[in-house]
Amino acid sequence: MKGILKIYHPEETLKYHIKSSYCKAVYSNSEHFLEVEIITDDSLDHVDDDSLQYNFPQISLNVFDFPIDDAEIEGKTFEIKDSDDETYTEVDLFDDEDAYLYNSELSFEKNKTGDLELYWKGEINDFYIGSENPIPFKLKCNFRQDEIEVDD
Fold first, then answer.
1. Which of the listed residues 7, 53, 110, 136 has the most CB atoms within 10 Å of its CB?
2. Following DSSP, what letter does each residue of 117-139 receive, concatenated?
3. Surface-to-core class of residue 93, CB atoms within 10 Å of its CB (0-12 exposed, 13-18 middle, 19+ buried)
4. 1/103 Cα distance (integer angstroms)
5. pLDDT for residue 136 is more than 60
6. What is the DSSP letter of 87?
7. What is the pTM of this model?
8. Residues 8, 51, 17, 90, CA torsion sign
9. Has residue 66 got a pLDDT over 80?
10. Cα separation of 116 and 21, whole Å?
11. 65, 68, 63, 13: which is closest to 38 by C-alpha?
12. Exposed e or buried b per residue across 34-54, where buried means at least 16 C-beta atoms within 10 angstroms of its C-beta
């Protein structure tokens, strides 16, 4: 498993397993930018039929074009606060609902096996029941290269 996303809704903690993760520092026009994409698994095997999560089986969280000082992200923490003028984060719910991220904090560390890990916490719109208060989330995932098995 690549990681887990937990959304702390007042009625229940929603858990999503991470299917794929992507991260890199991009150098463009003499500046460095952070790009991150996290896509959850669409499996609902671990979800109860009456769960709020059942209506939203998959989520994608993204950071794009976020300016950083240099290409080295290990050991660093980035605080991302979107505004009306500048947006660096995006959520895709894979349906017609809209959601937005607030107060994102991304921390990058290497684990014991040398893989880069991301700890991302912040808030997301309550797209489950539509309350006006954003709800907290935490995400932990790694960026270990997937091993592809080829049959003879």
1. 7
2. EEEEEEEE--TTT--SS-EEEEE
3. middle
4. 26
5. yes
6. -
7. 0.85
8. negative
9. yes
10. 11
11. 63
12. bebbbbbbeeeeeeeeebbbe
Compare 21 and 150 and report the one with higher pLDDT: 21
Q: 26 forms bridges with which residues in the sheet?
A: 33
CB contact at 8 A, 54 and 48:
yes
Structure tokens at 91: 């959520």
The phi and psi torsions of 121 (rounded to 5 degrees) equal -130, 150
pLDDT at 83: 87
Q: Do you know the residue count of the chain? A: 152
* Rounded (5°) CA angle 67-72-74: 110
Residue found under tokens 């290497």: 110
Listed in sequence order, the DSSP H helices in the chain are none
Residue 52, SS3 per DSSP: helix
Alpha-carbon gap, residue 72 to 141, rounded angstroms: 18
Rounded Cα distance between 17 and 43, Å, is: 8
Cross-strand pairs, 31: 28
